[in-house]
Amino acid sequence: MKICYFHVGFHKTATTSLQQICGGNRDLFREAGILYPKFAYPKEKGNQWNHSGPISQIYKQGKVKELKTEASSNERTKNRSFNQKSFLKALRQDGNLLLSGEALSCWPKEQYIRFLDDLDTFGYSVKALALVRSPYSFACSAIQETLKSGRYHPLVGINGPHKTKGRGIQRIPNRSEAIKILQEVFGSSINFQPFSKAISHPQGPVAFCLEELGLPISWSSLRQESSFDSNQSLNNRQARTINLLNKQLKINSNKNDYSKSTRRLMRQGLESLKSGRFLLTKEEFKLIENHYNQLKKDMNTMLGPSFSEESVQFSDPIKDTEDIMEALARCTALLATQSPKKSRSKQPIVTEGRDYNHY
Length: 359
Fold this sequence. Notes:
The structure is a single chain. This protein has 13 helices and five strands. With 359 residues, it is an alpha/beta fold. The chain has two domains: 2-136 and 172-221, Rossmann fold (3-Layer(aba) Sandwich), CATH 3.40.50; 140-170 and 232-342, no CATH class. Strands 2-3-1-4-5 form a five-stranded parallel sheet, with helices on both faces. The longest helix is centred in the C-terminal third of the chain and has 21 residues, at 282-302. It is globular, with a radius of gyration of 22 Å. The N and C termini lie far apart (58 Å).
């Protein structure tokens, strides 16, 4: 029986690096009897080797063999039809199949059932792998991604939380429900591993994933160069400052997110801010501590203590804001360079000695 190696992420567990290695070595994987499919992707998506979008789109609609492809001049429809045909062809080939995508970990149960039915129809067994970050580590990473995408988060301020009340602020991002669904659907076919174990591997988390999947290919044989510019993390001062900008832009534009060009200019204006990695402050953590403790308990029950053991560290409240005010001024100037149509919203005004205690 053929094998479908199904790497489902989760998010922020070196999935992009794995996809770049696999995509850049498709010929070597093919020689080893493993197909790593290539799909049509809009250029603006960046990572062309992430299977999340195409595979998710297929199984939102139904089983791949039952779907009808559409003839259209619309690029999105053409890509969708191309991807359906490509994936059907991939399922029909004689070798093993390797799929990778962090969003593959977030499907509703019925999508997995369609996917597994198709695998069975085309003669595949499945070996799935998911790397799981500990609750606090994942929460800090997920919050940072929220800020980078242009959305405002009420928990994160300059000196402390923007808000101290409200339902949303008392919870942090987590993957408990997704883990439950994956366990229920895949049973013993899925291998959960703590991300902390993956990053301690001598060759790094990508080599760890390939070993845990049981791929018959040696790490030393793979080309590891990549032209992909991976998504860079924000440091603590950058993350908190960009959230202040997100709040201001949201208030004035009545939108939850902004164009890529706007976000790029904001990042450019914040480049000079230096500090350690983004973490919650003690005051912020207290607001979500009850939820965090529940998540740890859930993780212990579902996967065991090795998935929840972690040292909860905090960032110090920011007292000296001079460099932040300068960065805000740069961002304001850069945002003002956008075309009038794209910059109708009022830009943040920075003044000397501004009180940041409530931001």
